[in-house]
Specification:
The chain has about 190 residues and is of the alpha/beta class. It has 7 helices and 7 strands, in the order βαβααββααβαββα.
């Protein structure tokens, strides 16, 4: 079992990166192989809707998304972490998501179908848009026919949420650890 964690934060060592790595550490402690990708300072061109991927199986743009796509093909489970910007996921997360049309369009493959997915959102306030941000992540995953999980019992909210400094948010880190346990449990089913 393999899980890919992606941080879309522009801050390579920020709160989102910390939270995603924390989730991956929990999964590694449970015997699951992990890989981490940071989108910080990475060149990812926005999708232009040319549908070249539908026709050829390759994107028009040759950039860092090739590594992201390889990672998504490699994994059995996917955790996407994003900071909350103005109540929603940040632009880098959305650009990455748009470019993943390749994984479902070429020969109608739906390459991510059946994989387990979960989200982590990090905001400045407890009700700063984290749940709506998680809904955006979940919608992306459902568009790929993935199995979306939350942070599971005993919280069982939309997913893992961090407020302020990730390393100091005890409750938030509990939701991250709980979400990682839920991903692991779903992968084992």
């Amino acid at each position: 079992m393999k899980v890919l964690g992606i941080s879309s934060s522009p801050n390579e060592n920020g709160n989102t990166a910390y939270a995603v790595r924390y989730a991956l550490d929990n999964l590694e402690n449970d015997g699951i192989e992990t890989k981490y990708i940071s989108l910080a300072n990475k060149d990812i061109h926005p999708c232009i809707g040319c549908w070249s991927c539908l026709k050829t199986g390759k994107c028009t743009f040759d950039d860092y998304m090739a590594d992201v796509i390889d990672g998504m093909r490699w994994c059995d489970g996917l955790i996407i972490g994003t900071p909350v910007y103005f109540g929603l996921l940040n632009g880098q997360a959305k650009v990455m998501m748009d470019r993943c049309v390749l994984l479902r369009s070429y020969k109608n493959a739906f390459e991510m179908a059946g994989k387990v997915g979960a989200g982590v959102s990090c905001g400045a306030f407890r009700n700063g848009g984290q749940e709506l941000t998680l809904q955006c992540i979940h919608t992306f995953m459902m568009q790929h026919n993935m199995l979306v999980v939350s942070d599971g019992p005993g919280y069982s909210h939309s997913g893992a949420t961090i407020v302020g400094s990730a390393k100091d948010d005890e409750l938030g880190l509990k939701t991250v650890a709980n979400m990682a346990r839920n991903v692991s449990a779903m992968l084992r089913k």
